[in-house]
Amino acid sequence: MLLSIALSDISGGIFLGGWETAALTALMISFGIIAIAFAIGIGFGYRELEEWAKNEMYEIFISGLIVVTLIALINILFGISINLAGGNPFSIALSKVSSMIVETNGQFLTLLLYNIYIGALSTLKFAFFIPIPILPPPLPTVIVIRIGSYVTPWAGLSSLMMGLDAIFNVLGLMIAALLVEQVLLTFIQVAFLKYFLPLGILMRTFPITRVAGGTLIAIAIGAYIVYPLAVIYGWNVYNQFKATSTPGNPGNAMEHMFFAPISWNIHDTTNVLASILKNFIIISIMFFLSAVITLSSIRSLAGALGGDPDLFGLARLI
User: How many Cα neighbours within 13 Å face the side chain of 225?
Assistant: First the structure.
C-alpha cells in the first residue's frame, strides 16, 4: 500500500506540488550544458574543456542521485504520515498552528471584553443628595440646596487595566509568532522544492557557483523535511504543558473573571493572566527551537553537499 502511494505521488505530484518536474528539468539542462561543452572539447580539440566536462559529469550524477533519493524519501515519509496521522506533515502542521491561532484569538477577544468591563466598572459612581429648603415651612420654598456626594467603590480596579494592556501586548506577540510559522509553512511547501531546489541544481553545474548551489539545495531539502516536523513537535509540547486557566478551556478560571472584581477578588483574574504568560513562554521557546532545529539540520546538510556551512550568515543565529 505504501509503495502504491509513493508511485502515485511520483507520477502525479500530489504531495510534492510538482517540484520533481522542475528538478528533473534543471538536471537535464545541466546535463545538456555539460554535454555541449564535452562535444565542443572533442570536436575542436580543446583538451582542457573535455576534461572539465568529464569532471562535471560526476557532479551531475551526484545531483541526480540527490533528486532521486529526495523523491523516494519524501514520498515514503509523506506516505507514512498519511497512513498514521491522516495527512502529510505540512497539512498537519498547518492544522495545529491554525488551532493555536484560533485559541489565542479567543483569549484576545475575551480579554478585550474584560478590559471594557473593568473600565466601565472602575468608573461606576453611586451618588446621593439631601435636599434642604432655604425657607422653613410653612413658608413657600423658593430655593432648595442639595447637599451630598458620590462614591466609586471599584475605582482601584483602574490599576488592573495597566496589567491588561501588558497582556494584550503579549497576546499580540503570540499571534504574530504563530502567523509567522503559518506563513513560513505555506511558503516552504509551495516554493522551496519547486524553485530553490532546481536553482541549486543549476548552480552546482558550474564550479564558481557550486558552493552557493549546494547551500540552496541544503536549505530547500532541510526546510521542507525538518521544519514541519519541528512545528508539529512544538505543538505537542504546547498542548501538553499549556495552562488550562485560559479562555477556551473547560473548567478554567475565566468563567469567574467577570464577577470576581465586584467582590474584590482578583485571584481568579491574576491566575488567568499568569496562565497566558505561561503559554506565551511555551510558544516563544518552541518558535525559536523550531528555527534552531531547522537551521542546524540545514547546516549539517550543507556541509555534506559541499555548500556553505554558515548558510550565507544565517548560521550565526544559532
Answer: 18
Question: How far is Cα 278 from Cα 242, in angstroms, rounded to an integer?
Answer: 7
Q: Domain check: are 68 and 189 in the same one?
A: no
- Between CA 277 and CA 296 the distance in angstroms is 28
30: nearest Cα among 49, 50, 57, 52: 57
- The answer to the question of residue 301 being in a domain is yes
In a domain, 262, yes or no: yes
Close Cβ partners of 246 (under 8 Å, ≥ 6 residues apart):
103, 107, 252, 254, 272, 275, 276, 279
Number of domains in the chain: 2
Residues 70 and 173 grouped into a single domain? no
Q: Which amino acid is at 254?
A: M
Set of cell numbers at residue 282: 511555551
Strand partners, 145: 132
Residue 99 shares a structural domain with residue 35: no
CA angle 12, 13, 14 (to 5 degrees): 90
Per-residue pLDDT tens over the stretch 233-271? 999 999 888 876 544 443 344 444 555 555 555 566 666
The better pLDDT of the pair 13, 183 is held by: 183
**Model pTM above 0.70:** yes
Distances (CA, A) of 290 to 99, 190, 243: 18, 19, 21
Same domain, 43 and 94: no
Phi then psi dihedrals of residue 47, to 5 deg: -65, -40
Yes or no: say if 180 and 288 are a contact pair by the CB < 8 Å rule. no
Query: Are 77 and 177 found together in one domain?
Result: no
Distance of CA 137 to CAs 132, 155, 293, Å?
A: 11, 41, 89
276 found inside a domain: yes
The domain of 191 spans: 88-122+155-318
Question: Is 34 part of a structural domain of the chain?
Answer: yes
Indicate the helix (H) or strand (E) that contains 97: helix 89-122
